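Session log. Operator J.P. requested a structure for one protein chain; no other inputs attached. Running the standard single-chain path with token output.
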Amino acid sequence: MESQTYSISRLLYILESFQKKAVWFLSIFTLICAVLYGFFVVSTILNVVEREKILSELALVGGDISSLESRYEETANLITIDFAKTLGFYEVRNVKYITQTGLALSSN
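Structure written below.
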């Protein structure tokens, strides 16, 4: 009978030891999960904020591009052959082309 009492008390000691280890393990695991969850939430929030900043900058750049395109269209419509001649440009009578093969000079 005494050996059964000894084995039961030994078994209870082992179970109690295991229970303490399991509680510590689960506590540390829960803490690690909470820290990782916080990290991922903050990371997601920062990425959303950065995305919003990029979208607003994209809208500004798009407006600048639109403005530059309209200025280009206005300027392109002003440049004509007559306007170029008033600036001192003239039409070339003998057109010569340079090809890349052997850099030979050809005349057409």
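Operator note: The radius of gyration is 41 Å.
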